[in-house]
Design a protein that fits this description.
Residues 305-325 are annotated as: Disordered. The chain is mainly α. 48% of the residues lie in helices and 0% in strands. Among the domains are: 61-110, no CATH class; 124-293, no CATH class. Helix 6 packs across helix 7 and helix 7 packs across helix 8 (177-191). The longest helix is centred in the first third of the chain and has 22 residues, at 92-113.
């Protein structure tokens, strides 16, 4: 049996002065014949600590002349030349620490001269698009709420902008908090209007509901079709203006719209309620107009809106079914 095939138990019973390995023959060895394999030797004894200390105290080689050559090649001024000469006479560890100190000093100086990170600014094209679509959303009578962070025009307009990166807000900017905060502030600024004036209960010139709707659309500078739903929504907003004269106006509007949907879940009954309770009263109080000529279909924006195809509903819990409010 070959010595390399011995079992563990066989190897346990071998004499200590014998080796289980067979010395390789010269013929089988892949090494040249002129090379001999020396027997394994024990690791050399490490040098005493005193010897190492003595080696560290060996004088540093004088590199002054070489430092002068380098200074001339780089055309260093005398102050820098002297500093380089002093550096050449340092120990290796001292040189490493000195170099690290210079690096840290340069890093600090760079941070002082480097301009601060420029905040993202809304591009002109994106600002124009936000203005256009904000007007479309505000004039849309199907919006279920105005000051709701989840279903209001602010959320809808944000979704529209994010769905159109070609307007100036790239997809990767969604991960940048500063850019998202700036965009949110811009949308809020565009959508936020002034609170109604105290005691303002009448419309300028006592316009009828159709004239008032057209006036609002012209102010918004958006081509939107005046229909029965839009007139009803404008009448509701004006009615609440006469009853709510504080900064919580839009919150009160959202609450009232949710109450109507909760009381009349059927969209047909909602339309009837708007006609009987809101529009008829508005026509009696202001100017009468024939509403039969108005279309009853949805408002169609002039500019296609990329984003949610349908608007969610609103209630106290933001969970009511969809409707025409």
């Amino acid at each position: 049996m070959s010595a390399t095939n011995l079992s563990f138990d066989d190897m346990m019973h071998l004499p200590l002065d014998s080796s289980p390995l067979k010395a390789p023959s010269v013929i089988d060895s892949p090494l040249p014949r002129t090379v001999s394999i020396s027997p394994l030797r024990e690791s050399p004894t490490p040098l005493p600590t005193s010897t190492l200390v003595a080696r560290c105290k060996r004088p540093v080689e004088d590199m002054t002349q070489y430092a002068g050559d380098v200074a001339r090649v780089h055309k260093l001024v005398k102050v820098d030349h002297d500093e380089l000469t002093s550096f050449s006479n340092l120990w290796c560890a001292e040189q490493a620490i000195t170099m690290m100190g210079h690096i840290l000093a340069l890093k600090h100086q760079q941070s002082l001269i480097q301009p601060a990170e420029v905040a993202w600014v809304v591009p002109k094209r994106l600002h124009t698009k936000i203005d256009e679509h904000a007007a479309v959303l505000i004039a849309d009578a199907s919006i279920p709420a105005y000051r709701n962070d989840k279903i209001g025009p602010g959320k809808l307009l944000m979704d529209i902008v994010l769905a159109n990166p070609g307007w100036g807000f790239s997809a990767h900017m969604k991960l940048e908090k500063d850019a998202m905060d700036t965009l949110s502030s811009e949308i809020s600024r565009v959508l936020t209007g002034s609170p109604p004036l105290a005691g303002q209960t009448s419309r300028p010139g006592s316009l009828d509901i159709v004239e008032l709707s057209n006036l609002i659309i012209s102010k918004l500078k958006v081509r939107v079709k005046v229909d029965l739903r839009l007139c009803g929504r404008v009448a509701i907003l004006h009615k609440l203006i006469t009853e709510t004269t504080d900064a919580k106006y839009w919150g009160a509007v959202d609450t009232k719209l949710a109450d109507v949907r909760a009381t009349h879940p059927d969209p047909a009954k909602q339309s009837k309620w708007i006609k009987v309770r809101i529009l008829d009263l508005d026509l009696v109080q202001y100017r009468h107009v024939d509403l039969k000529d108005l279309a009853s279909g949805p408002v169609v924006p002039a500019v296609p809106v990329a984003g949610p195809s349908t608007l969610p509903t609103a209630s106290h819990d933001d969970d009511d079914d969809d409707n025409n409010m």
